[in-house]
Write a structure and sequence with these properties.
CATH architecture of the largest domain: Orthogonal Bundle
Main location: membrane
CATH class of the largest domain: Mainly Alpha
Number of helices: 12
Family: Belongs to the binding-protein-dependent transport system permease family.
Helix content: over 70%
Largest sheet: 2 strands, antiparallel
Number of strands: 2
Pfam families: BPD_transp_1 (PF00528)
CATH topology of the largest domain: MetI-like fold
Distance between the termini: 12 Å
Strand order of the largest sheet: 1-2
Order of helices and strands: HEEHHHHHHHHHHH
Structural class: mainly alpha
Number of domains: 2
Strand content: under 5%
InterPro entries: MetI-like, MetI-like_sf
Keywords: Cell membrane, Membrane, Plasmid, Transmembrane, Transmembrane helix, Transport
Shape: globular
């Protein structure tokens, strides 16, 4: 499909924005600038990071790093999606579930992923399982809260109309509640996927020999500064791409929402 002029303009603007960021990074790092409390004296310039990236691409460990991280993120995300959406639908529709579950979940929600590391090691003997658990915790609450928000945001007039027409509870859920809450659920899934990658470095600090987060942390310990930025950029690109894929799939599964939003 041919790109429209507005899409070309948008892509061009984004490319210019990225180029400007790289240019600023180059100037600050090569000049070893000091901006108040922030110094760029030890920040490698883009050219050095580019060389480190090419070195990683040519390394046989790249596939092992990527496959390990992708498996951990996928396992944590799928588990969080099943539990988060299920609990969110239950809490959103059931007053008793809300009273019983929401308060404990709200207490646990602000705890950062790094604080779960000691407990994850104690609860889960497998280091691989512990790493998956950290990514699971990171993704769970964005998915859960967005699902609850989506269910609570269903127009009560739609529910009342469906009930007045004799719609059964299961059909009411499948034909009114779930489609109305779906856009918010997809948003939660997209945010949750991004949070999974955000927690990856924390998760792979536990143990392991492979993974993009482990590669980033190991680069810091050996003071390979360019490799740190390479790892950060890889995590950022993978997180952005996977979140965009979820958003794209959600739009294709929700033609009613896409039409209302005016986007294809």
């Amino acid at each position: 499909m041919r790109a429209t002029p507005s899409q070309v303009w948008r892509w061009g603007a984004q490319a210019i924005s990225l180029a400007a960021c790289v240019l600023v990074w180059h100037v600050l790092s090569t000049q070893q600038a000091h901006l108040g409390l922030v110094t760029f004296a030890n920040v490698p310039p883009p050219a050095e990071v580019w060389d480190a990236a090419w070195e990683l691409v040519g390394s046989p460990k790249l596939s092992q790093h990527l496959s390990s991280s992708l498996l951990r993120v996928a396992s944590g995300f799928v588990s969080a999606s099943v539990l988060g959406v299920g609990l969110g639908l239950l809490i959103g529709r059931s007053r008793w579930a809300r009273l019983a579950l929401l308060a404990p979940l709200e207490v646990v929600r602000p705890i950062p992923a790094v604080a779960w590391i000691p407990l994850a090691i104690l609860m889960i003997p497998s280091s691989e399982g512990s790493m998956v658990f950290i990514t699971f915790v990171g993704a769970l609450f964005p998915i859960l809260l967005n699902t609850i928000h989506g269910v609570n945001g269903v127009d009560p007039r739609l529910v009342a109309s469906a009930r007045s027409l004799g719609t059964s509870p299961w059909r009411l859920f499948g034909q009114v509640i779930l489609p109305s809450a779906a856009p918010s659920i997809v948003t939660g899934l997209s945010i949750g996927m991004g949070t999974c990658w955000f927690c990856l470095v924390t998760a792979e600090m536990i143990s392991g020999q492979y993974g993009i987060g482990y590669y980033t942390w190991e680069s810091y310990t050996v003071q390979a500064y360019a490799n740190i930025i390479v790892g950060m950029l890889v995590i950022g690109l993978l997180g952005m791409g996977s979140s965009a894929l979820i958003h794209w799939g959600g739009q294709r599964l929700m033609p009613w929402h896409r039409t209302q939003g005016g986007q294809a």
